[in-house]
Amino acid sequence: MPIGDEPIVIATGNPHKVDEIRAVMDGIGVRVVGLGDLPGEFEEPVEGRDSFEFNATLKAVSYARQTGRVCLADDSGLEVDALGGAPGVISSHYATDGEETGITREQRDRANNAKLLKDLAGVPPEKRTARFVCTMVLAAPPLGGVFPPSPPGGGGFQPPHPTRSTRHYDGRFLQRTSGNLPHWDLGGATFFVTFNLRPGGKFSDAEKQIVLDACTHWHASKIQLHAACVMPDHVHLLFRTLGGDDGSFTTLGELMHSIKSYSATQINKLRKSRGPLWQEEYFDRIVRTPDEADETLRYIEANAMRAGIVERARDYPYLWESGEGAGGLEAPPSGKTRTDARVLAIVRGAFEGRIGMPGDVPRGDNGFGYDPLVLVAPEHDRTGAELDSAEKNARSHRGAAARLMACEIERLRVGPSNASE
């Protein structure tokens, strides 16, 4: 999906952040607006604690759904190597373990800085390496946020309709294949499928997106996908197979092989590794009634919430639903989809330094947060709060991420995005 001429929405109400990103995007002729420039009110997603990438993706996808426009969101904070990457996603509320307590920004900064210096007590200067990090994610809803027409062959849940026998359905025969598990296949039926990583495996956020893209690839061509959810170590799908022009259906085995093979190849490339990724078998069942379809869809929706990853089920960015419903589930109002926004690009910018020693820091007046503690690389003789505004903006982690995103946007403007290939 190339980037069009419509302004990109910066998913924030902070005008200073919008201005900083606008200064970069002006250089490539891309207009941007903030949420405050749009009419109406928007529901703010509840951020998690997984990673900057997770939170930025969550926000970009959520606001792309709500606005029906291409949206850019970011998440940022401080990573300290000696603390295993902490404060990380709770940088703003490190002293209170990520909880908002209602104190002023100045009080919060003092408390966070005091905790950071205390946690680094005894760590020598050369081991106090750190960086400010900003991850940016660009997301877009398909067709401007309105779901495309139902694919050929009908829409919604379709239970199998028996005719002459329990093995014969409207001219189609129920087929059984076996590996270590039995699999039942029926062209045009609705399937609930679960497949798992090999024991001990876990997806990163980037890998979850690869799997989700593989799961949605055949939507509206070989399958009508009702829902997909990519969890840290397993995947749930609810879909109906669609007939081709010649009336033939892609088998369940062929579909699963395509999804698992493609995603494994791409993830191994990302990891620079080789070898099997998925468990060999998958679990499937044919969904026979609208009530069963509804129950299955609710189960898929609630997976991430039950696992404690998000507080609200539809805030999970690796949950995809068609918005048409299944088995009588109502579609969202105004034709808007619920969770079908697509990630177009992910970038990460960083501002390197190290945390100074107590007595030497904090120092400097041109900064806030952790700026007075971070000695700027490579010299490590000035803190971030001692830089003048021009140098600080030039080194900014958000500015670095914005410049990388500008390169991605230029690529998207001249060719199809990875999300729609």
SSE blueprint and pairings:
Elements: E1 8-10, H1 15-25, E2 32-34, H2 52-67, E3 71-80, H3 105-119, E4 129-140, E5 162-165, E6 168-169, E7 172-173, E8 175-178, E9 182-185, E10 190-197, H4 205-216, E11 223-230, E12 234-241, H5 252-271, E13 278-287, H6 290-301, H7 303-306, E14 319-321, E15 342-355, E16 374-376, H8 389-395, H9 397-414
In a nutshell, what does this entry contain?
This protein has nine helices and 16 strands. The protein has 421 residues and is an alpha+beta fold.
Architecture overview:
This protein is of the alpha+beta class and 421 residues long. The chain has 2 domains: 8-141 and 345-420, Alpha-Beta Complex (Maf protein); 147-335, 2-Layer Sandwich (Alpha-Beta Plaits), CATH 3.30.70. It contains 9 helices and 16 strands. It has helices at 15-25, 52-67, 105-119, 205-216, 252-271, 290-301, 303-306, 389-395, 397-414; strands at 8-10, 32-34, 71-80, 129-140, 162-165, 168-169, 172-173, 175-178, 182-185, 190-197, 223-230, 234-241, 278-287, 319-321, 342-355, 374-376. A 6-stranded mixed β-sheet has the order 2-1-3-4-15-16. Strands 13-10-12-11-14 form a 5-stranded antiparallel β-sheet, with helices on both faces. A hairpin with a 3-residue loop joins strand 11 and strand 12 (234-241). The longest helix is centred in the middle third of the chain and has 20 residues, at 252-271. The N and C termini lie close together (8 Å). Mean pLDDT is 84; it is low at 143-154, 162-171, 325-339 and 416-421.
